Amino acid sequence: MMQDKEQSQSGFVLTSLPWILAAGTVLIYLLTLNSWVTVSSLPITAKITGWDWNTTIASPLLHVVTYPFRFLPHSIQPVALNVFSAVCAALSLALLARSVALLPHDRTREQRQRERSEFSLLTTRTAWMAPVLAVLVCGLELTFWEHATALTGEMLNLLLFAYVIRCLLEHRLDLRDSWLFRMALVYGLAVTNNWAMIGFFPGLLIALIWIKGASFFDFRFLTRLVASGVLGLLLYLLIPIVEIASVDTTATFWPLFKNQLLTQKLFLMHAPLRSRALVCSLTALLPLLVIGIRWPSTFGDTSSAGAAISSLMFKVVHAMFLAACVWVAFDQGFSPRRLGLGLPFLTFYYLGALSVGYFTGYFLLVCGEDPKKSWDRSSPGMRLVNRLVAAVVWVGVIAVPVALASKNLPLMRFTNGPALRHFSNLTEQALPEQSSAILSEDGISLTLLAATLEAKGDPHHHMLVNTQLLPFHAYQRYMASHHGSRWPVFPLEKLKEPIDAVQLLGLVNELSLSNQVYYLHPSFGYYFEYFYLAPKGIDYEFKAYPLGVIPMPPLTAASIELNQKFWSGMKEEFARLAKPISEKLSDAEYLGRVYSRALNYWGVQLQRNQRLDEARACFEDAQKLNADNVAAVANAKFNENLRSGRADTVQIEQSLLDKLQSYPTWVSFVQICGPVDEPSFCINLGRVFAEGGLYRQAAQELIRAISLKPDNLEARFQLANVYLQGQRPDKVMEVISEMRSQQDIRPLSLASRIELTRLEALASANPTNHQKAEQLLLEAHQKNPQFEQLLLTLAQIYLQSNLYTNALETLDKQLALAPNSINPMLLKSAIYIHIKAYDQALPLLNRVLDLDPKNVAAVINRAIVHFHTGRLEEAKMDYEAILKQNSKDPDAYYRLAEIAKKSNNTSDEIKYYRLYLKYAPAGAEEIKLVTERLKQLNASP
């Protein structure tokens, strides 16, 4: 009778309970379901609904199973997709409950004394508690809950993973190989869909061999197992086929196929991900290793004291693992959410919950049940301790899910609440009623706006333009097909890909002539040389600069009041974001970054209009919304200086400097955080802009730096050089005139006066009239022959007028004064190379390298001379020397390939051409030639 009751209990836990739990959890997810999108679900949902220009989902299985949703009415597609994710989550939890029930409880001596069922499955009256707690710990964990209520594709991946685990455990029960063949098929499918499954392959292989033993190596079994896995892997072919079938692509199959594999490889080889995955595995894989071992009854000590110590040791270890796995579910410290670099790592949470189920069952069995045989029973004192431990587990089964729900439900209400939709509505409301062109390099905000316009029933009212994708032909074709005559005609067949900035500027300019143009966020770059931003709430009107105007037009009083009213009305929204941001919710963090950047930008505009107190409030709110916004921190500190009547450079803490240095470039930092209104930042950013050819933006930063620190000569000289590079000689003369007029206030050193003369000469010179510049420089040189830059500048001016003889004579004059001066020799050798007088250039270059063996410019020029004079071995040595200093120099690889070609060394030619393609900048003219040459050599690029 007792055995029948135990079998009935076991049958309920194995068969009925998983479905009951699935029904309960799917109800929870449906009640808390997201009715729109989240930042995490947006990429997938946008492709299915058509909000994204490219509708192909990179995960092939997800592409297949979600394809039918494309035929649903647009209004219900997001909700339907989220319901699908909830169902996948519930099925994953059903498999979790089943898997917990299938775990053997014969691992330790004490378990074997109490559980005597056929397969050592838990058959006690409390057996149901283990899968229930496992399911609730997993299902109420914040990351799991987020992905269960909004489609991100992660729940489908987890469902496949859960099924693989279930197949392994089912095979242990009935030993049918069909479970393993199904597992291999599903694992193959899962690998194509989720790169992380590749990382689990070694563990899966070890588990298979552990379970099967020597029979694993049976040839027939292995053949069928591998065939099942390969069948699943065939899904890798789907995405390249879908891409080729697209009318917007000219790509071929193999590059697309290799790119898919390369993407997975890059994720797997990403060092920070691997190290953090290793930490996460301590509460996911390590407990399973302990569970997988069937421990002996004794460890050599057969005494009662030894048995007691062994028993206590096992209980302590199991308790530590149970506590750690539960602790991780609360997202503390070393949880995947804290360490995952933005990735959910749901498989680790799932494995942790599986361990929670096992360890809960262990304590309910070992501490809640007596051994079957009376002589194995513990002393009364130990039995009392065991009952107390079992009582604690009972309390935990109730308390842990309640605590998780209490902690995470408010956060889920925010995640699935109106915050993201409210942001997108604000974006849409700030746009004009008439059809406009909306530009953005932020794909998220642009796609959210597309979703909002779709919900309003007019998805094509505005042209939504992703400026990051504009250089690509496929995107240009897409925009032309969707917007017809509203989109400028672009002769793509005549344009190289990626399309260069000058051509794209023409397109944007044409858009601005026939449309109002708006930008969705503050930004910097090539377009902003000709257009500026006029803030309008959360959006920015994109206006063309008046002809000849360098500084950004000042804000009007009406504009300031309108924008201040908008940001004042956002205070309550910012307060609601505080808690979710601290909990690192992806939607809240995204909104925090967007609002913080916009507030910081607006604060800078207020500060530059002398509204210092209002600017301070903006900078403070920007920091609260994004603690990593270094720009807002620097601005707040400088604002404090300005309000105290000083314009001193601010000192930033080392931690914030480290964050600043984490950005790859200054421009990327400004694009993410917003501008910094502080003299040293302005000067540095002005230099960076000038180096990138963004002369107007460079001038604006330098003008601001000068207005803050009028005595900063560095900024004034830098501004004059920027005007010179930007071909505004009139502005150069203005700067020079101002500096000279203020000599009584700010006296100039001799070196500064010489530099002003040099700049004046360059500004005065042009290819048809160099007399004034010549006179200025010669007079200055006569008085101050020690400044070699005077004659060097004169030589450069002669070069601009193609007066090579004059330039060479001028350089000879300088070398007569300073025979070992490197710069005149370099310039002279460059002139000889230009006029193909290679034999005259070579002695000069050798002389420079005798004086300065590491002079890169001299090595490059000498390599060119050697190459053109047929000294191929010497040229090769020079280019190899260049690569020792810069291993990514594409020109050096190109020249080495050309040398190999002339030497009939095909293998080196292929090697160096491939290296050239690896490091060549996008749009380089030689790329097409190199690609064609590699095809001629029957070598893939």
Give a structural overview.
With 941 residues, this protein is mainly α. It has five domains: 2-415, no CATH class; 419-551, no CATH class; 554-666, no CATH class; 678-747, Tetratricopeptide repeat domain (Serine Threonine Protein Phosphatase 5, Tetratricopeptide repeat, Alpha Horseshoe), CATH 1.25.40; 749-819. It contains 46 helices and five strands. Strands 2-1-3-5-4 form a five-stranded mixed β-sheet, with helices on both faces. Strand 4 (531-536) and strand 5 form a beta hairpin. Helix 8 runs antiparallel to helix 9 (177-193). The termini are far apart. 40% of the residues are buried. Mean pLDDT is 90; it is low at 1-6.
Largest sheet, described in full? Answer: 5 strands, mixed
Q: How large is the share of residues in beta strands?
A: under 5%
The overall pLDDT, averaged over residues, is 90
Radius of gyration: 35 Å
Report the structural category.
mainly alpha
| First and last CA, distance | 75 Å
User: What is the number of independent domains?
Assistant: 5
Number of strands: 5
Number of helices: 46
Architecture blueprint of SSEs:
Blueprint: H1 2-31, H2 42-49, H3 60-66, H4 77-102, H5 109-114, H6 129-139, H7 142-148, H8 154-174, H9 177-193, H10 196-199, H11 201-212, H12 219-233, H13 238-245, H14 253-268, H15 271-280, H16 286-292, H17 304-329, H18 336-339, H19 346-366, H20 380-415, H21 419-429, E1 436-440, H22 443-455, E2 463-466, H23 473-483, H24 501-514, E3 516-519, E4 531-536, E5 539-544, H25 557-568, H26 571-582, H27 586-608, H28 612-625, H29 630-643, H30 654-661, H31 666-673, H32 679-691, H33 695-708, H34 713-725, H35 729-741, H36 750-764, H37 771-783, H38 789-800, H39 804-817, H40 822-834, H41 838-851, H42 856-868, H43 872-885, H44 890-902, H45 906-919, H46 926-936
Parallel strand pairs: 1-2, 1-3
Antiparallel strand pairs: 3-5, 4-5
